[in-house]
UniProtKB/TrEMBL annotation:
<dbReference type="GO" id="GO:0071949">
    <property type="term" value="F:FAD binding"/>
</dbReference>
<dbReference type="InterPro" id="IPR002938">
    <property type="entry name" value="FAD-bd"/>
</dbReference>
<dbReference type="InterPro" id="IPR050407">
    <property type="entry name" value="Geranylgeranyl_reductase"/>
</dbReference>
<protein>
    <submittedName>
        <fullName>NAD(P)/FAD-dependent oxidoreductase</fullName>
    </submittedName>
</protein>
<dbReference type="Pfam" id="PF01494">
    <property type="entry name" value="FAD_binding_3"/>
</dbReference>
<dbReference type="InterPro" id="IPR036188">
    <property type="entry name" value="FAD/NAD-bd_sf"/>
</dbReference>
<feature type="domain" description="FAD-binding">
    <location>
        <begin position="42"/>
        <end position="161"/>
    </location>
</feature>
Length: 414
């Protein structure tokens, strides 16, 4: 799910190495670094204390690699700025944190709402996704990272001046991505979302995805249940996000069947990137990871699972002494998947509201709800997209040809 980011005021410097500047300077314990046999001592400098930097520090530290992390803000995880919707499978197997501490709600499925109001239901009998308490997640990551690494909060670092000081990991986010890739700006969308209190129960087990230009140009709008009576409602779009979000709120009851929101609890804003992974992830002795590397899903803008996978591949590369392994491993794991997602994103962006409504209605008639519910994956979307394409070609060849033409035009985009 999309991840809006908000700028924060620079705050005072804090040093965390066994102690962290979490609420009340909570003690975290202090571990002794032990390098494995045959592994040369390495000092890795990570710039950026968001999830990408913390995961890199966490996984490197687990393998006994000496790490220093620099983060310009004095706290991590605040203010909360992400929808933070992930697959339960990805949370357990790749992000690797305890569900007990970080999960706000578990979801069984999604309603995909076309511009004309047609709804496609995708669901399982048991929960498949989790809405995370983002500050809690980053506190958990910081606690473990600080037990094994030197963490400097409130310390601003200039990447250019760190060259020649060993391996540097750039985990500084979208700002760095815009510097590294001249065309990336076209895929960075302003985003805005509200946490809203509802006067009554709305189920709380399904996320709503709203398609169409009324609510978003370049992505979609969403309503994610934090509980049965609190929803996080937002969108990312080229153009006026405020007016689009206000329009969505006016249409909320009609589109969802939920009670009209009665109170706004919180506001988050920032940007979402949907342009795919950068071609080169290694720049001299600097490695790019997370948003800085474009490791977010082009279909949704979410990136927690992908950056966590990248952090594990980074650790393998550092331990091997061959940094090129990182780029090869990440491309092998995510390259084809992200390219397929980028094609899907370009196709969806090319469709008019009328075409989107026609597509959703046809997919509903041809049994796509059952197909996606049975075989869909939040983290590996390419295979089910291919099966949907096959279903469309077999049962609606005229529509398939029209979509193919749109897809061809998408391929012409740089």
């Amino acid at each position: 799910m999309a991840c809006p980011r908000r700028r924060r005021e620079r705050e005072a410097e804090h040093h965390v190495s066994g102690e962290a500047a979490i609420e009340g300077n909570e003690k975290l314990g202090k571990g002794v670094l032990q390098l494995g046999l045959g592994v040369p001592e390495a000092r890795v400098t990570i710039v950026g204390g968001g999830p990408a930097g913390l995961q890199a520090a966490r996984f490197l530290g687990r393998r006994g690699i000496s790490v220093v992390l620099l983060e310009e803000h004095s706290r991590v995880g605040l203010p909360q700025h992400c929808t933070s919707l992930v697959s339960l499978e990805g949370l357990r197997d790749i992000i690797k944190v305890s569900e007990r501490r970080v999960v706000a709600n578990r979801l069984r499925g999604a309603w995909i709402v076309a511009p004309d109001g047609t709804r496609l239901l995708v669901e399982r009998s048991q929960p498949v996704a989790a809405v995370l308490k983002r500050p809690a997640l980053e506190e958990v990551l910081l606690e473990e990272a600080a037990s094994r690494a030197e963490i400097l909060l409130g310390r601003r670092a200039e990447l250019e001046k760190l060259g020649g000081q060993g391996l540097v990991v750039n985990a500084t986010g979208v700002t760095s991505l815009l510097r590294e890739s001249h065309g990336a700006g076209r895929y960075v969308l302003p985003a805005l979302q509200y946490d809203l209190a509802l006067p009554g129960d709305c189920g709380g087990e399904h996320v709503f995805i709203f398609l169409g230009e009324r609510f978003s140009r370049g992505l979609f709008a969403w309503a994610v249940p934090l509980s049965e009576k609190v929803y996080r409602v937002g969108l990312a779009s080229k153009g006026d996000v405020m007016s689009r979000l206000e329009l969505l709120l006016k249409s909320f009851h009609r589109l969802t069947g939920c009670p009209e929101p009665v109170r706004r609890l919180a506001v988050y804003g920032g940007a979402v990137y949907t342009g795919g992974m950068l071609k080169h992830l290694l720049r001299g002795s600097t490695i790019l990871i997370g948003d800085a590397a474009g490791q977010t899903k082009p279909t949704t803008g979410g990136g927690l699972v992908y950056l966590s996978l990248a952090a594990q591949k980074l650790t393998e590369a550092v331990r091997s002494g061959n940094l090129a392994i990182y780029e090869r491993a990440v491309v092998r794991e995510l390259g084809a998947e992200m390219k397929a997602q980028l094609l899907v994103r370009r196709l969806l962006n090319s469709l008019s509201d009328r075409e989107l409504s026609t597509l959703v209605a046809r997919l509903k008639r041809e049994g796509a709800e059952e197909l996606i519910s049975r075989e869909g994956s939040m983290d590996r979307q390419a295979s089910v997209a291919l099966k949907i394409a096959g279903l469309t070609a077999a049962r609606a060849p005229t529509l398939a040809l029209s979509l193919l033409a749109k897809l061809f035009l998408g391929l012409l985009e740089p």
